[in-house]
Amino acid sequence: MARIIFLFLIFPSALFSYAVTDVYVPNCKVVKGSFLFAAETEVTNGQYLLFLNDQYRKHGAECYSSLLPDTSAWLSPGTYCEPYLQYYFRHPAYRLYPMVNVSKRQAEAFCEWMEVQLNEQFEKMTDQPIVSVDVRLPTDQEWQEAARGGNRYAIFPWPGSGMRNTTQKHKGRFMANFSRGQGDYMGVTGDLNDGADITAPVRSYWPNQFGLYNLSGNVAEMLQEEGRTRGGSWASRAPYLEISGVDPFAGFSKPSPEIGFRYFVEVIHRRDCKPIRKQKITARRIEKMLVPVIQDTLMAWKFEISNEWYDEFVQETSDENKPNGELWIGELSYARRFKNDYSTHSDYKNHPVVNISREQALKFCDWLTEKYNQFPKRKYTRLAISLPTEEEWELIASGNNRDNYFPWGGPYAMNSKGEWLCNYNTVQERWIIDLNNSTYLVNGISKDMIQAAAGQDGALVTAPVDSYYDNSLGIKNACGNVSEMVADLDVAKGGNWGSMIHEIGIKKSVIFTKPNPYVGFRFVARVME
Q1: Backbone φ, ψ for residue 309 (5° rounding)
Q2: Which of 132, 175, 267, 388 is a plausible cystine mate for 392, CB 3.0–4.6 Å?
Q3: Phi, psi (rounded to 5 degrees) for 286
Q4: How far apart are CA 183 and CA 340, in angstroms?
């Protein structure tokens, strides 16, 4: 019976009425993009009881006992909390109150269980886009982003710097469950009190801009960082409820009636819900993509080779030629979604292929050469498709004008309308200390801030191969997006989505000896007959 109740609470069928492009997680709200979600509320006693019952059914009494809350934590000198010891966790009246008195290990066990429940449901629901998720406690940075609700300057999860509601309808009411003074957990009678002597139901007060309840007050919420919480509790004073305030429970190691948790959900794999429309490769289609560089002799592919074209090659040859998605891991935050989806999902079919070796790129060139030359109807009797030499690549990128610094001719990466001309890391120049120092970070600038800055030009990582502007030959993305392999040197040219402004340009190159997420390729075609 508990199993059925759980599915009703967590997966009401009405919640799954969405367009096929939506990414939706039950009982959660979006925190970042369409891949990071936070539970709307702190985990409740009711949810935790369902978890316990399921663990007892599957793993027995010993496992069940190890996950029980330490209700004795309610007992504290100078207080009268004995009724809570007996009733708070078990009594139906407290089902919608936040779960407390659990250790971090127990909270993580709940997250692991929730992950299984969600993934089992997503696996069955093939008409929605999520394949799998990771459920976990949030990092400090994730929690603060969720609490700010999109306002980077927010002090509390609600507007303003005060503790009371300022709207006409609810003016003067407290915005959270906290203590106004030592031993004062409810305030005085009437509208001045916060309505709770200890915890309050998890949907009390008002949600923040993301739709999340009680991020400050009620119970302090555990973080991934060991011994850390955020938000303060029902017994905390107002300063501890500030989003970036001092953690009153820093270093905690034992269960507490003031500490609970909220789970976050990271989407790590999506399925394609869009109809798959594969374009047939024909001689005409190939010829339309070629632009002349040297008349009647040398042509270049207008774009970087996309995942769509490369996947045709893999399908017709061998899985050994697949890109190595594992190489995304460690290069940016939330990389698992790129690892699982980048080379296969239709959202990325027009993005440049990456994470392949020079040998794989050369095999692609040989494959396309043979394919083109076998078409009975073709414009050129015979083409030889290959990687360009460095000299040829610079000729192509410059639009036959070797004096150009960038392919578009001008010295700037932004035009007079304020539009970005290529995809690179548009980090603020004031953050760069030394052009020869690869760290280039000033105090207080994090790796995540650098990555976030990269998205200002319209792409956090790669962009579609037909983005931005052509050069004079009609070539796109010769600088930025992905660095491009050349045939005669162990380098890749032009800079990429992770490059700073001083690292992009026709003459710029990076060492390339093994596959990575920053390097792709574009080929040239020589007219042989």
Answers
A1: -65, -40
A2: 388
A3: -65, -45
A4: 52
Answer whether 283's CB lies under 8 Å from 375's CB.
Answer: yes
Strand pairing report for 264-270 and 36-39:
antiparallel
Q: Which of 323, 527, 500, 354 is nearest to 424 (CA)?
A: 500
Q: Can you read off the two tokens belonging to residue 422? A: 């290529």
Provide the 3-class DSSP secondary structure of residue 122.
Answer: helix
pLDDT given for residue 444 in this prediction: 65
pLDDT tens, residue by residue, 470-515:
999 999 999 999 999 999 999 999 999 999 888 999 999 999 999 9
Token pair of 290 as six digits: 């070629």
Question: What gap in Å lies between CA 231 and CA 212, rounded to an integer?
Answer: 13
What is the SS3 assignment for 29?
strand
Do the beta carbons of residue 55 and residue 106 sit within 8 Å?
no
- What is the crossing angle of helices 358-374 and 307-316, to 10°? 80
Single-letter amino acid code for the residue at 6: F
CA distances from 28 to 35, 205, 277, 315 (A): 12, 18, 33, 38
R_g (Cα) of the chain, nearest Å = 29
The strand pair at 259-260 and 220-222 is best described as parallel
> Which pLDDT does position 126 carry in this prediction?
86
Burial of 86 (0-12, 13-18, 19+ CB in 10 A): exposed
Q: What angle do CA 397, 398, 402 make, to 5 degrees?
A: 140
Phi, psi of 476 (to 5 degrees): -110, 145
3-state secondary structure of 109: helix
CA dihedral of residues 291, 294, 296, 301 (deg, nearest 10): -30
Residue ranges with strand state E in 273-368: 290-294, 298-301
Q: Which two tokens stand for residue 388?
A: 């360009």
Residues across the chain:
529
Give the residue ranges of the chain where pLDDT is below 70.
Answer: 1-22, 77-79, 181-193, 276, 428-445, 447
Helix (H, G, I), strand (E, B) or coil at 220: strand
CB 465 within 8 A of CB 481: yes
Question: What is the structure's pLDDT at 187?
Answer: 53
Give CA–CA dist 359/365, Å, rounded. Answer: 10
> Which pLDDT does position 454 carry in this prediction?
76
pLDDT the model gives residue 15? 31
Residue 487 CA to residue 358 CA, distance in Å, equals: 8
Q: Which tokens sit at 10?
A: 């967590």
- Residue 292 carries which side chain, given as an amino acid letter? P
CB of 161 within 8 A of CB of 155? yes
pLDDT in tens, 206-251: 999 999 999 999 999 999 999 999 999 999 999 999 999 999 999 9
Beta strands in 280-326 (DSSP E): 290-294, 298-301
Task: Please report the pLDDT score of residue 18 as a whole number.
Answer: 30
Q: Which domains does the chain show, CATH number per domain? A: 2-8+25-269 (3.90.1580.10), 283-527 (3.90.1580.10)
Rounded Cα distance between 448 and 425, Å, is: 12
CA angle, corner 412, sides to 409 and 415, nearest 5?
Answer: 90
